[in-house]
């Protein structure tokens, strides 16, 4: 009667373990996805910094010191001949092509045609450089808004951004509210209160240990690759788990050795130099494929132990 | 009476080539045009032109039409009074804002200063987009996790 309960418990525990393993894998994938999003954000931010520095470096000093109203008027003169020198025009055109090559994520054809028009215009002025770079910066921002996995969801949101609240989505404030005076006599403009979003706690690294142990155990279900075994002392009785007591008469060796089971017995290797003549082909023919694979695994394990022991001795 | 320079700037802004700035409200004229409903006249200290000069564009609604947001730092302010000075309120509530620190209207900005602000605004937009996407991504996947856990039990 009590034996019938054991299989049910083991089955239930197995299901719980499977579920927990799936949840653990899910959390690992979520963490990796969030990390990739962060790296993408960093990449775009550094691209913006690079483009701004390039633009500041390429723009001439006279143009850099101009006031904005004058520059905005220059925008209107994009189709006219510029007052800049020919060498300056060549330099500006080169910077345009450089900015074009620096952009990642190519723009759609509609925007491409606009770029072609700007490139084809003779005597491009600084205003066109500014417009091209600004367009590229904004296109970089736009490219970020269509990530692969949730493209359909983002497409729906893109439609909502056309409404009056579209600007809110772009530059909505997420900073903590500043302190405003509480006196009622002189009422000051106050900032809207924003609720900070609670950050999700990440899983501890200790939770990942059982997964590793399980992977190790799946390789050898009965015995781990390395185990400290003790030979029975002289006169000590070794009890068997499956029947009557067993008297151990084999004396432990003082030297390292390897016992390889073969079909009709056991091949025992000693730490002596082994010549090719001593290895009889008849014995090796009795080795089966599984035993050969086990020997290869043992060889790798022994090599690892030798390497680490050598390092320890040298230190 | 507007000065001829302002009229010329307004005319040039009508072209399509400057529309790339409108999305992020980088230019003062675009910020002026964003005010659909503002409860104060042009004679007030916080008129539309003065608000736009200080970096604010309209983010209000029919019910709360006195809400405005800075295009650089994203600070949103409401509860304006006719005697409020937009620049002072901006510095008071957002002292870390680069545009408020500059305290320089667009007509006195140089191209270099404008480009610095441009970079700041674009990077802010990128960070905002990433934050919104990550939060929605996590929220959707947590919903799926809850459904999975509920179905398994």
From TrEMBL, chain B:
| Signal peptide (from-to) | none
Return the GO cellular component terms, semicolon-separated.
chromosome passenger complex; chromosome, centromeric region; cytoplasm; kinetochore; meiotic spindle midzone; mitotic spindle midzone; nucleus; spindle midzone
**Organism from which the protein derives:** Drosophila melanogaster
Q: What is the lineage of its organism?
A: Eukaryota, Metazoa, Ecdysozoa, Arthropoda, Hexapoda
Q: Where in the cell is it found?
A: Chromosome, Centromere; Cytoplasm, Cytoskeleton, Spindle; Nucleus
Q: Which InterPro entries match?
A: Baculoviral_IAP, BIR_rpt
Recorded hits in PROSITE patterns, A to Z, give: BIR_REPEAT_2
Spell out the Gene3D superfamilies in the cross-references. Answer: Inhibitor Of Apoptosis Protein (2mihbC-IAP-1), Chain A
Q: Report the domain of life of the source organism.
A: Eukaryota
One Gene Ontology BP term is:
mitotic spindle organization
Its name, as the record gives it, is Deterin
């Amino acid at each position: 009667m009590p034996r019938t309960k054991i299989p049910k418990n083991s089955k239930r525990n197995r299901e719980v373990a499977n579920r927990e393993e799936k949840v653990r894998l899910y959390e690992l994938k979520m963490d990796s996805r969030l990390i990739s999003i962060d790296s993408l954000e960093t990449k775009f931010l550094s691209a913006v910094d690079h483009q701004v520095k390039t633009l500041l470096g390429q723009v001439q000093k006279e143009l850099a010191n101009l006031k904005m109203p004058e520059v905005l008027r220059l925008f209107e003169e994009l189709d006219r001949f510029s007052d800049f020198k020919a060498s300056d025009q060549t330099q500006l055109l080169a910077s345009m092509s450089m900015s074009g090559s620096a952009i990642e994520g190519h723009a759609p054809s509609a925007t491409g045609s606009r770029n072609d028009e700007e490139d084809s215009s003779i005597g491009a002025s600084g205003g066109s450089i500014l417009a091209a770079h600004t367009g590229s910066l904004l296109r970089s921002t736009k490219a970020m808004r269509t990530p692969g996995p949730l493209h359909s969801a983002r497409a729906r949101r893109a439609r909502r951004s056309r409404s009056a609240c579209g600007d809110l989505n772009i530059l909505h404030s997420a900073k903590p509210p500043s302190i405003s005076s509480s006196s009622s006599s002189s009422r000051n403009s106050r900032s809207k209160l924003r609720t900070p979003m609670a950050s999700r706690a990440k899983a501890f690294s200790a939770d990942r240990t059982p997964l590793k142990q399980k992977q190790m155990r799946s390789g050898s279900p009965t015995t781990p690759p390395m185990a400290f075994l003790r030979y029975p002392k002289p006169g000590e009785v070794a009890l068997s788990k499956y029947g009557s007591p067993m008297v151990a008469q084999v004396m432990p060796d003082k030297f390292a050795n390897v016992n390889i089971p073969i079909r009709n017995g056991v091949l025992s290797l000693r730490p002596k130099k082994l010549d090719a003549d001593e290895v009889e082909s008849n014995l090796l023919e009795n080795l089966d494929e599984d035993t050969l694979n086990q020997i290869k695994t043992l060889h790798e394990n022994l090599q690892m132990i030798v390497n680490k022991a050598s390092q320890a001795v040298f230190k | 009476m507007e000065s001829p320079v302002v009229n010329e700037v307004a005319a040039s802004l009508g072209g399509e080539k400057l529309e790339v700035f409108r999305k992020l409200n980088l230019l003062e004229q675009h910020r002026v045009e964003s005010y659909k409903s503002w409860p104060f006249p042009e004679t007030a200290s916080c008129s539309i032109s003065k608000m736009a000069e200080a970096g604010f564009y309209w983010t209000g609604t029919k019910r709360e039409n006195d809400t405005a947001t800075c295009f650089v730092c994203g600070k949103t302010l409401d509860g304006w009074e006719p005697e409020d000075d937009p620049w002072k309120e901006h510095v008071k509530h957002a002292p870390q804002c680069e545009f408020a620190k500059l305290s320089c209207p667009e007509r006195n900005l140089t191209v270099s200063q404008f480009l610095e602000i441009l970079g700041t605004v674009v990077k802010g937009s990128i960070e905002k987009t990433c934050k919104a996407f990550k939060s929605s991504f996590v929220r959707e996947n947590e919903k799926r996790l809850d459904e999975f856990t509920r179905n398994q039990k």
